[in-house]
Known about the structure:
The chain is an alpha+beta fold and about 1000 residues long. The protein has 27 helices and 50 strands. Strands 1, 2, 3, 5, 6, 9, 13, 15 and 16 form a 9-stranded mixed β-sheet that branches. A 7-stranded mixed β-sheet has the order 32-31-33-35-34-36-37. A 6-stranded parallel β-sheet has the order 41-40-42-39-43-44, with helices on both faces. Strand 45 and strand 46 form a beta hairpin. The radius of gyration is 39 Å and the shape is elongated.
Amino acid sequence: MKRKIGVVLLAVFFVVLFRAGEGRAVVPECGLAVSFDIPLAKVMGTIKWPVRAGWKTTLETGTLTVSRVEVNGQPAVFSLAGGRLGFTPAADGQAEIRYEGVFPGDKSAGHGRNSNLSDTIDNRGISLTGLWYPRPTGLVVYHLQATLPRGYVAVSEAEQVTRTETAAGVEFSFAFPHPLDSLSLVASDRFEETEDRAGAIELAAYFFKEDRELAKTYLGQAKSYFARYEKLLAPYPYKRFAIVENFLPTGYSLPTYTLLGRDVVRLPFIAGTSLGHEILHQWFGNGVYVDYGTGNWAEGLTTYLADHLREEERGKGWEYRKQLLINYGAYVRGAGEFSLREFRSRTDESSQAIGYGKAALVFHMLRRKVGDAAFFAALRVFLGAQLYRRASWEDLRQAFESHTGRDLAAFFQQWLEGKGLPEVRLEEVRIGRTGGKFEVICNILRSGGPLLDLPLVLSSRRGVLHREVITLAAEKQTVRLLTDEEPTLLTVDGDYDCARKLTAAELPPVLARLLGEEKTIILLPENNLEPYAALLEGFRKRGAEVREAGPLKDGEIRSASLIVLGRENPVARRLFGSLDPAETGFDLLVKKNPWNGEKVVGIIQSRSAAEAEAAFGKLFHYGKFSSLSFAGGVNVAQGIAPADRGIVREFRAEPLAADPSGLQTLDRIVEAVSAKQVLYVGEDHERFSHHDVQLRIIKALHRKHGRLAIGMEMFQRPFQKVLDGYIDGTMEEREFLAKSEYFKRWVFDYNLYKPILDYARAEKIPVVTLNLSREITEKVSRQGMDSLTAAERQELPEEMDFSDTAYRERLREVFRQHKSAGERNFDFFFQAQITWDETMAQSIANYLKRNPAVPMVVLAGAGHLAYGAGIPKRVFRRNGLPYAVILNDSDLERDIADYVVFPQPLEGLTAPRLLAQFKEEQGRLTIEGFAKESVAEQAGLMAGDVVIALDGARVHGLEDIRLALFYKNKGAILKVSVLRQEATSGEQTMEFEVQL
Length: 996
């Protein structure tokens, strides 16, 4: 039976003196004796410290209580304020300080005096790694003696541990002859000790009894780490090393041991990953201490030589470095950005991205600058000079300069003092022949940040043609590269050897970008909020704003990263169309925000509150992934969305070739696709030959199936009944053209489509209006979707997918080539195009749902059909029905269509033209000017005339002129009535005869 341990006063017999190392500064020695009252969470101790007469002594005490200070056995006057103990001894000698500290495990239990959350004493054990004893400033050699209840095992910094049973319990003495900047102590009555050796190093593992089977794995891995690091750097700086399990969630490396939390050691990958990082800290951080006043270099160097080197040896160094840059971009923002010189310790993801990630990349660039051999040799010089001392970035620089003979002051100054990362962009990349070689010329732009040694690679499909590293010293630098063989690809920094901002194309949509976002909006599901309660609470605490999905403006979607709850959430459907249902208890999918490439959208589906609660806390360990699935809190699937590797520019693609012997006729193509439910036939709107191909396909399929529907981009949905009336014969053509507003809404000559409509009317083939009202698409194109009224929004499909980046870039090129592009907003243009495509896709899907046995031929511009991006894939998303795409006179590009037809040119009847320009304003149609050889001008019409009638029929708008001209033959007379403003008589009505 365990007995309650009361306060035990320890006698201390340490001889305390000043020591001097070999040519080194004098290091004081200090004796520390402690005991514990575990039920009261109390430590009681005595510290002995050498003092000089008249020299004020100051020790850090934090929340500790000091009961007595003696100098040479005599009471001394002392002060205790602001977490510091101060006294001035009257004589040389030894000071003895008695103190107590209370460190309860439950910080809300009322003990309240422990402000250092790393220090805890309770029935789980003892974990003291903070300010648990009056701590001197500077480096000190400690002699620690701890008395604990029987059954307890204690661990501290030590090269030799002595354990002695006493009447008061068990006494541990820790011998450590090297200076320390702080001391720690861990103890438990559940430890089981396992011993081993790694050459001359004594190894030990202290694991809780329930985890004792892990000891063999950890010790085995430790031996391999010591062998690696001693070969790479220098002999291990101590004689002993222990792996200690802690009941607190710690991950510390301390001189001679590492302290890992219980949940951490149980993770199957820790022994093969994080353990190596903590062991390497025995050299950097614990063998050579950090001079924190000048910046913490140890975390970055340890990250580079432990975590990074492990991945580099697996051939994945570039992936690791890229992930460091992804994390930097995700977490380091605005006021959170600071220089490496300012880094002290990790406090959040932002500080980790700088002090660990950016610093590791700086060491990588340094290694590339000086070479592998010199890099590791310089580190050995550094270790030999600074072991058991505090070292700074300057000490590192001097070690590298002394070994390499190079002046590295500018390199260190730029990377240590500067904030942020430079941005690199390519401009005006072009390729051409110069004599017998190929020359690539490009401008490389650098904005912000220090100089970069930037790797460039030219490659072909057969491999690398040329490698070069350029020093990017100017903000704009022109580079010329020559190769014997034609390159197909230029890659800049494809292995991520430089610390720089990633381009949008290199950034995959990953969870880290969502977690690090400054502004995040959570969008509630339409119903059943209960499964997401834990997520809402957790993300609210991180500053996320909670909103209903319905009223969210498109501008708000653009301005923030989003957390969308439920795959059926209206915003998810609005941005990405329909998403496949989740298959596990908790699924998260991160996608690029299609309206702002710098933002992301996280879509979460949870089956229950328990699934969400079990998964939420673990999400923060999976920031590198784009998709995650959990079942009962266990990660069962993960994935990363593809992104560019490096800054890439592709040159001329490999020429495609067709075998003429395999060319097919249109009839055979139609036969091959006749079983498809939907057949898309693309057109250049003004080519009769393309419409002839469409008609031939319609006739062939109609003959084969006996039933068919035709979907037409050219007609808008509000006019379906008008079109039905014309097809079923109850409305004549002129009335149909007027009531469908064809000449107002579709500017192309109706003669191009007349044969198709005539055939459909004759055969009673249904023609489906596909398009959205022109007023809506034009309004979106000018002002964006936010400008639509509630009634106009009702016309839009609920599902719209904006996420096809390749389609977006093709549309951007179209936008650039548009004459008025400078006066418009591409985002609005893109929105208009997607609403157009999605409306046509919805119209097709709705008709096929109502008429499942009827195949459909869809007629639309080639841009809506190429690569399946505009309409076909959007219909397939809705119904999954098989389809094929036929384009006319298209370039032969991979995956552009199922078939490309090259019809012979065909002339066709077209309506005559007046060759005049008109302006519609306030119900009047005014002539603004004339084309060359205009028949209207030749007939006497003048700029400024207001057209009021044609052949006696009233004119209300431009469509009336187009309709009248459609029913006139070339050479015929058209009577044009106008109002003309005369200088003397005012406005007069005049009539002219125009020979068409």
